[in-house]
């Protein structure tokens, strides 16, 4: 039953991770698209917080009932209240329905006809029929695909899911934050129990940080743009990973070492510093590399190839997730936790330079204008700020 449930859940999550970013991008105005797009990731992170809160003290049935109830509520809201996207309706010659959808989304005082005409011109140009194989040879497809796939690679191989999935184990292995009474230092069972309880609590802190700073990103993305948040996030993640790597390098504990470590009160400072750095890494990831690759995936492609392109990118993202999380323990066995964290830091640096040279700024641009950036252009001409004055 558990395996069947996981398979069904996986299918649902895979479909929603493909459809939701595209849906939000197609219904949002250019001015609000960044904030609304990041709300998708904010909701996912809220789910992490709920999962850790219910799993902290509750038993298995309780932790299962909560997400089931939330999913049923979402299903009711989605089926009965969400309109189809105006771009989809216009592409299928349903102009009246598109206008009604725009009124529903923008309000009665918004110049709906003007936006409809603007979208209609681009849609009619780009969607005379369904995509064909020759469309995949166009620069408006392969350049955005290269960017989106690379962003997903750097997102997942920065180590974020490994830290999220195994943060309790990492804290346990590092002796972070165990609250043990002095008289219990000779009792290994009580020490281990305290470590397990505290590691779960700090894992909840991690997910709460993920949620809070993704919310902050919603307010920053349309003010400062995608590139600046990705670049600053890379710098912050790199700076945060280095102290954690050094800490784990010096303090890798077995039970005897944990007892010795906890007997020295001054070592608590180093554990707290490592915890702060992990939370800092999560925070900087949440501002940039958490939500923005999904947002950019939904923005870069023309409507004609958006479906097939986002399907490829989403599949690749989950493949990267599976690869990193399934191999994490094996990699640790080979190069230890500190070596793995240093590897993540190097990949973060690579992501910084990739963003600097190849990722265009989409802030404030209509989706159709973003796609036109790649028509008969060299990728560097689209992205590098000293080649295009409006790239940053």
TrEMBL record:
Transmembrane segments: 6-24, 36-56, 62-82, 163-180, 201-223, 229-249, 270-288, 308-329, 341-359
Domain Major facilitator superfamily (MFS) profile intervals: 1-363
UniProtKB keywords: Membrane, Transmembrane, Transmembrane helix
Main location: membrane
Assigned GO CC terms: membrane
Record-linked Gene3D superfamilies: MFS general substrate transporter like domains
Highest taxon above the source species: Eukaryota
Membrane topology, record value: Multi-pass membrane protein
An MF annotation (GO) of this entry: transmembrane transporter activity
InterPro entries: MFS_dom (IPR020846), MFS_sugar_transport-like (IPR005828), MFS_trans_sf (IPR036259), MFS_Trehalose_Transporter (IPR050549), Sugar/inositol_transpt (IPR003663), Sugar_transporter_CS (IPR005829)
Cell compartment(s), UniProt: Membrane
Protein name according to UniProt: Major facilitator superfamily (MFS) profile domain-containing protein
């Amino acid at each position: 039953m558990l395996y069947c449930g996981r398979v069904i859940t996986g299918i649902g999550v895979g479909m929603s991770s493909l459809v939701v970013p595209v849906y939000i991008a197609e219904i949002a105005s250019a001015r609000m698209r960044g904030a609304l797009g990041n709300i998708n990731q904010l909701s996912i992170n809220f789910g992490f917080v709920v999962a850790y809160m219910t799993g902290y003290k509750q038993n298995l049935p309780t932790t299962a009932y909560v997400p089931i109830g939330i999913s049923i509520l979402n299903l009711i809201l989605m089926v009965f209240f969400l309109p189809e996207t105006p771009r989809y309706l216009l592409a299928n010659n349903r102009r009246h329905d598109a206008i009604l959808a725009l009124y529903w989304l923008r309000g009665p005082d918004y110049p709906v006809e003007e936006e409809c005409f603007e979208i209609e011109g681009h849609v009619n140009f780009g969607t005379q029929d369904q995509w064909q194989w020759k469309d995949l040879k166009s620069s408006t497809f392969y350049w955005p695909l290269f960017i989106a796939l690379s962003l997903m690679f750097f997102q997942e191989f920065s180590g974020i899911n490994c830290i999220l999935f195994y943060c309790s184990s990492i804290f346990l292995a590092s002796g972070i934050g165990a609250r043990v009474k002095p008289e219990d230092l000779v009792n290994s069972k009580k020490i281990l129990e305290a470590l397990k309880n505290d590691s779960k609590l700090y894992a909840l802190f991690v997910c709460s940080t993920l949620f809070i700073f993704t919310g902050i990103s919603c307010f920053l993305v349309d003010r400062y743009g995608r590139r600046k948040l990705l670049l600053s996030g890379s710098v912050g993640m790199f700076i945060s990973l280095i102290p954690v790597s050094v800490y784990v390098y010096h303090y890798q504990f077995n039970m005897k070492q944990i007892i010795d470590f906890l007997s020295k009160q001054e070592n608590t400072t180093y554990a707290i510093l490592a915890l702060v750095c992990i939370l800092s890494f999560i925070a900087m990831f949440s501002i940039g590399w958490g939500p923005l690759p999904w947002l950019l995936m939904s923005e870069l492609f023309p409507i004609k190839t958006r479906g097939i392109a986002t399907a490829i990118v989403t599949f690749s993202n989950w493949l990267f997730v599976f690869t990193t999380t399934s191999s994490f323990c094996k990699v640790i066995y080979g190069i230890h936790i500190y070596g793995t964290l240093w590897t993540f830091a190097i990949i973060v640096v690579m992501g910084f330079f990739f963003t600097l040279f190849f990722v265009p700024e989409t802030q404030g641009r209509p989706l159709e204008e973003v796609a036109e950036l790649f028509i008969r252009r060299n990728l560097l001409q689209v992205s590098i700020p000293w080649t295009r004055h409006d790239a940053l």
